[in-house]
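Exam revision sheet. Question 4 asks you to relate a sequence to its structure. Input first:
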Amino acid sequence: MSASGVVVAAGLGLRLRAELGERTPRKAYVTLAERPLVVWSTWALARVEGVDEVVVVVHPDDLEELERSQLGAALRASGATAFVAGGARRQDSVRNGIQACRAGAERFVLVHDAARPLLDPSDAKRALEAAREVGAALLALPVRDTVKRGDDVACVTETVPRDGLWLAQTPQIGRRDALLAALDAADAAGVEVTDEAAALERAGQRVRLVRGCADNFKVTTAPDLARARERVALGGVLLPPLPSGPIAKLSAQLRNTPPMGTRVDFGAEDSAVGELRTKLRGLPATATPLAATVGAPAPATPPPAFPRTGIGTDLHRLVAGRPLILGGVEVPSEKGLAGHSDADALTHAVIDGLLGAAGLGDIGEHFPDTDPAYAGADSMALLRAARLAVEEAGFRVGYVDAIVHAERPKLKPHKAAMRERLSDTLGVHPSCVNLKAKTGERVGPVGRGEAIAATAVVTLLPR
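Answer key, structure tokens:
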């Protein structure tokens, strides 16, 4: 069953603005690694399994400009499907967002704060599964600290037992129609609810608590924002795409690239692949900060000042009727590797190693084999885009050590050419790329000549 997402980004963020200065934009537009918080939250919700639309609720003053701004393009690139204007209160904004979602008696809606940028989609998926079991759910954390109740002069009146106490997070999830009815009932009773779960509780709906993650905190104050930036700087966080970034540009350009059957020399003037490579070489190392559209400087998030290591692996079946491409080099062979792109297992392993070391996810997240744009794509172009994304994140390639596991053909005569192609695309000296070839000793699919596998270890250095 499909579900909808609603990102609530209509608030003013007055507390954060008071701490950071009057020139600070609305909280949803404050940047984290050059991406506004609302882009992060939209990106997270769009990657929840089962969510097929994400409605972003913004301040009414921003709606018209958003549709044609770079921020709007960034939200679209991150999974937003519609923008709607918010209301005077949170529950009004949430209602507007839910009403813009697809209808359906069994359609669930995940309502998420724009100010919670570091949501793990897998946590939201667990909450959605719980909501489907009992009707509603939310992410939350058990209270660990001792809780005190105070009086008007801040003196303790009692120590509150913390057993059974939870700190609510988002997303908060319920059936679309039930959420709308609960919000309407709260309005009719003159009750202002602080979250969607409270409205559902008032309506008699059972709401399941699903343990969340401490990283899914709400950015409310300047220290919260600093904490989020520190967390991203540690790595291991998949950054939302920039609409002008290398991977987004590559996706658009590859839609005009001919299928692999028309493959010609990579550097030929009349080659569409060669033209793509030329275009990719001209891409900027750093994209324009999204914050430029909302009038705020984009603070840099420096990477840790130490090397980072990533590991990539790949395996493809050998089939007749396909060219064998490894490391960007066509190797004479009776069989080639099956795959959505050119199935260059060696280059794919290097790409995964690059992305892993930079904390940018994996090749399947950036170049999915379900996207027709990458059908027959030249993996050297993908590698170039991945390298630029890594540089955009603040790193440079230090060293690559890779192994190709193949029973046949023999790869020794082609290793130098592969090394040259890889080092050229990565922008490093050939001495920074090492290649090894191993057989499978007639064991397993590689040893039986049914497949070729590759492993790469990539070291990145701060730029």
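Marking note for examiners. Residues 254-303 have pLDDT under 50 and may be disordered.
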